[in-house]
Design goal:
The first copy, chain A, is mostly helical. Chain A has 24 helices and 6 strands.
Chain lengths: ~475, ~475
C-alpha cells in the first residue's frame, strides 16, 4: 500500500490513483469475463475500498460487479456505501437479493439502510427475512431518529458472571462471529446488565478465573431514548469503544460501537456548521456532489428569504433617519463598516457558544457567567476597534484630505462611540441567544450567524444614527 | 449508575448531580482524614470521572486529593484532565512526583503533557525518567504538531508471523498490559509491518493456527508526517480502532488509537468553526471558560481589525456614489438588505466547501465542477430572492404607500436585478476562494464567512449603484 501513503501526503483522503488502477483492472477483468480473478481481488481488498470502487462505477456496471462479488464481501461493501448509491443499487435488485444482502449485514447497518427506503419496500423485504432478523429490525426501526436506539446494534457479546474465562473464550469462539464487537463482553443476569469485561481482561487473566471476579460492576450505560450526540460525546469522554444501551426498565437492549459514534459526531458537526450558515440540513450523510442543484436550492432558500425580509426592517430604520444622512452624507460611508464589524463580533461569540454547548463545556445554566465574561471581552475589543477606527477617520478625512471634509473630529467620535456600543450589544446578543435557544429546547445553531447579524445590524444602525444626532445636534441641529 | 441516565435525558454531558455527591463525599472524607475510604471510592470510579472531580476542586484541595489517590488511578485521571488543570497541578508537584506520574501514563499522553510545558522543566523531567521512557518521549516530542507522529503511541502489540495463536496469547498475557491496545496485533519482521491480526481473529481461530495463516497482509498504514486529521478521517473511513504508523523507510514506529483520533476530529471541527467565525484558534483543547478574558480578546481582535479596515474600502465605494443616493435617498434603505443577503449566500457556499474539503468529499481538483454547480444553484436562488424582493418593494412602496413614493417600479427593478447578480457573485466567490486557498496550501477555513462577506459587500454595492445609475439614467439622468 505504498501508493496510499504517497497520496495521503497530498492531503487527499481517498487513495485515488490506487483505486483508479484497481477500477480499470476490474473493468478489464469484467469485460474479459475473468470472474474468478475478479472475486479474488475484491476478496483481498478492504470492503471500504470495494465500496468506493462500486460508487465510482456507473449504475449498470455497479450492479454487474456487485452481483459477481462474494456474498459476504458484497454485504460488507454495501454497508460502507453512501445512501444514494445504495438506493440506486437496491432499485436493480430482486427481493431475494436484497434479503440475502440484508441478512449478511450487521443489524444496525441493515436498519440504517431500511430507514431510507419506501415503507412498502421495507414491508416486502421484512416479510421475506428470517424471523429473528425481522424481529430485531422491527425493534430497531421503532426508535426515534437521533436516539441511541437508532444507532445501536442488538448483536453484542453476552456473558454470564459464573462462567470462567475459559468458558467465555469457548463461547466467543462459537458465537463471536455474530457480535458487532467482541472487545467488550456484557455480563447479563435476567436481562439486566450487571457488569462489563474487556477482551483485554479476558486475555490478561488466567483461564480458570471466574468472570465475576474480574468484571467491572460499576457499569456506565445510556438509555435507548438518549440523544445520539450525547452518547457519542460520553463515549469520547470515557474513551469507550462501545457503550451499552438499556431500556426504561434497565434491560440491556444493545450497544453503540465507536465507529457509529464517530460518524454521529462528524454528522452533528456538519449539521451545526450548516445551520450556522443558514442552510437547512436535510441529510447530513449526503455529500456536496451527491445533492442535486434543486435540493441545494431548497436547503438554502428558506432562511435566505426570512433573513432578507427581516433586513427590510433594518432598511426601515435607515429610512427613518433619512434627514440625518441627507444632511450628513458622509455618514452613509461608514454604514457598511458599522454593520459588518459588530456582525462579525456577534458571530465570534455565537460560534463559541454553539460549539461549547455541543461539547458540553457550556450549559444553559452558565447564562450570567457568559454575559459577564462577554461584557468584559467586549469592553476590550470595542475600545481597541473604536480607537483604531477613530484614528483612521482622523487620518483619512483630516490629515490626508487637505481640509476637504468638515466636522471630521465629530465624525470620528460618532463612529468610535457607536462602534464601541455596537460591539458590546453584538457580543451580548451573540452570547445570550444560543443559550436562550438551548433553554427553550431549540437548537442553538439555528440562532447563529445570519440571525444574529440581522438583529445586530438593526441595533448598530439605531445606535449609530442616534449617536450622530446627539453629537452633531449642537453643530448642525436636528 | 441510574443518576447518570437521568442526567443524560436533560441533555447534559456530565453527570453533575452524581459528581457533586461524590465530590462532597470526598471532601468530607478528606476533612475527616478517612484516607483509606477515599482511595477505595476513587479506585472504583472511572478515571474520567475522577479527573472531572479533580478539575472542580480548588488548586490546594486538588493537590491534596491527587496525592492521596492510588498511583495508577492518579496517573490515569491525570491523562483525562484538561491542559490548564494539569499545568496547575504540575506546578505544585515535586520533580519525583512528576516523573512517577509520567512513567505510569501511556507514552502518547505523557508526550502530549510535556509538549505544553516549558523546555527547562521538560529537560529536568526527562533527565530523571527511565532511559526507555526518555528515549521514547524524545522521539515522540520530535514529530511536527498535527502530524500522525504527534498523536501516535509506540506501545503497540508486536507479534511474529511464525507464532501460533497460543504463543500470541501467552505473549499478550505477559506483555499486553503495556500495549495501548491489544485488539489489533501488528506482525513485524525486521521492523517492517508485514501483517495485522485482530484480537477477534485470535479468539475465533483454533490455538494451533499459525499467525501468518490468518493475518491480513494487505496492510493499510500511514506515514509519521501525515496530517493528523487525514489519519483520523481514514480511520473513520475504514472503521479502524487503531492505525499503524510507519516512517520514511517503511518501519513500523507506532499506532494511532481511535480515542485520540476522535479527539483530533473534534478539535479540527472546533478549529474550523472558530476560523470561519474570524477567531484565531490558539489551543483547541482549551474550553470557553478555561480561556481568560484577555486571551479571548487576543484571539478575536486581529481578524476584526483587518476586516474593519477592509470595510473602509466598501465605505469608499459608497462615497463614490454619493451623488446617486443624494438624488435617490430611498436607495440607502435597501443597502442593508443588499449587503446581508448576498453575504449570507456566500457564507452558505463557503461553509459547504470548507466542510466538504475537511471530509474529503470535495477536493481542489473539483474547481470547475463546483463553479458550474454553484452557478446553477445561484440562478435559482437569485431569481427567487430577486422576484420576492421586487414584489415586496412594489407592495410596500406602491400599493400600501398611497403614492407617497415615485419611481417605485424602477426601484423594484434595480433591487431585483442587482440582488440576482450579487447572489451569483456571492455563490461563485464563496465556492472559489476556499478551493483556491486549499490549492495554495492555505487553510480554506480562513477564507471563510467574514472575509467573503467583506468582498461580497463591496461587489454587491458596486453592482447596486451601477444598476441604479443605468436604470434611473433615463428617468433622472446622471
Amino acid at each position: 500500500m505504498e501508493l496510499r501513503n504517497e497520496e495521503l501526503k497530498e492531503n487527499d483522503l481517498e487513495p485515488r490513483e490506487d483505486e483508479k488502477l484497481t477500477k480499470n483492472r476490474l473493468l478489464q477483468l469484467m469485460m474479459k469475463k475473468q470472474y474468478r480473478e475478479m472475486r479474488e481481488i475484491t476478496t483481498e481488498m478492504h470492503p471500504a475500498d470495494v465500496a468506493q470502487i462500486l460508487e465510482d462505477l456507473d449504475e449498470n456496471n455497479r450492479l454487474v460487479v456487485f452481483r459477481l462479488l462474494r456474498k459476504d464481501v458484497a454485504a460488507e461493501a454495501f454497508a460502507y456505501m453512501s445512501d444514494e448509491s445504495r438506493n440506486d443499487l437496491v432499485e436493480g435488485f430482486s427481493d431475494t437479493e436484497i434479503v440475502s444482502t440484508l441478512e449478511k449485514m450487521s443489524l444496525d447497518d441493515a436498519a440504517d439502510m431500511l430507514e431510507d427506503m419506501p415503507a412498502s419496500v421495507v414491508k416486502r423485504i421484512l416479510a421475506k427475512s428470517s424471523r429473528q432478523t425481522r424481529e430485531s429490525l422491527n425493534r430497531l426501526l421503532h426508535y426515534p431518529d437521533s436516539s441511541a436506539g437508532s444507532i445501536m446494534t442488538p448483536e453484542y457479546l453476552r456473558l454470564r458472571e459464573d462462567w470462567t474465562i475459559q468458558e467465555a473464550f469457548d463461547w466467543i469462539r462459537q458465537h463471536g462471529e455474530e457480535a458487532e464487537t467482541v472487545y467488550t463482553g456484557y455480563v447479563v443476569e435476567q436481562n439486566r446488565l450487571v457488569g462489563v469485561i474487556s477482551a483485554k481482561d479476558l486475555m490478561l487473566n488466567s483461564l480458570d478465573t471466574q468472570i465475576k471476579e474480574v468484571m467491572d460492576d460499576n457499569v456506565i450505560s445510556v438509555q435507548v431514548t438518549d440523544d445520539q450526540e450525547n452518547v457519542a460525546r460520553l463515549m469520547q469522554h470515557y474513551a469507550f469503544n462501545a457503550m451499552p444501551v438499556v431500556d426504561g426498565e434497565g434491560m440491556l437492549v444493545g450497544i453503540v460501537t465507536i465507529d457509529d459514534a464517530v460518524d454521529v459526531l462528524t454528522e452533528e458537526s456538519t449539521e451545526d456548521m450548516q445551520k450556522m450558515a443558514a442552510i437547512i440540513p436535510e441529510d447530513s450523510t449526503a455529500t456536496y456532489f451527491g445533492t442535486t442543484v434543486w435540493q441545494h436550492a431548497k436547503q438554502r432558500i428558506p432562511w435566505l428569504l426570512i433573513l432578507m425580509l427581516s433586513a427590510t426592517f433594518t432598511g426601515m430604520i435607515t429610512t427613518h433617519y433619512e434627514t440625518t444622512f441627507a444632511a450628513l452624507p458622509l455618514l452613509v460611508s461608514f454604514m457598511p463598516m458599522l454593520m459588518d464589524t459588530p456582525g462579525n463580533c456577534g458571530n465570534q461569540t455565537c460560534t463559541l457558544m454553539v460549539r461549547g454547548l455541543a461539547l458540553g463545556e457550556v450549559t444553559d445554566k452558565d447564562f450570567f457567567k457568559v454575559v459577564m465574561k462577554e461584557l468584559r471581552i467586549a469592553m476590550i475589543v470595542g475600545s481597541i476597534l473604536g480607537a483604531v477606527n477613530g484614528l483612521r477617520i482622523y487620518l483619512m478625512y483630516d490629515v490626508f484630505a487637505g481640509g476637504h471634509y468638515e466636522h471630521v473630529m465629530t465624525y470620528a467620535m460618532v463612529v468610535s462611540i457607536s462602534l464601541f456600543m455596537a460591539v458590546i450589544l453584538a457580543k451580548l446578543v451573540g452570547g445570550m441567544l444560543p443559550l436562550i435557544a438551548k433553554k427553550c429546547g431549540a437548537d442553538p445553531a439555528i440562532m447563529a450567524t445570519p440571525f444574529i447579524t440581522t438583529i445586530v445590524d438593526a441595533g448598530s444602525l439605531v445606535i449609530y444614527f442616534r449617536v450622530a444626532q446627539i453629537l452633531f445636534g449642537s453643530t448642525i441641529g436636528f
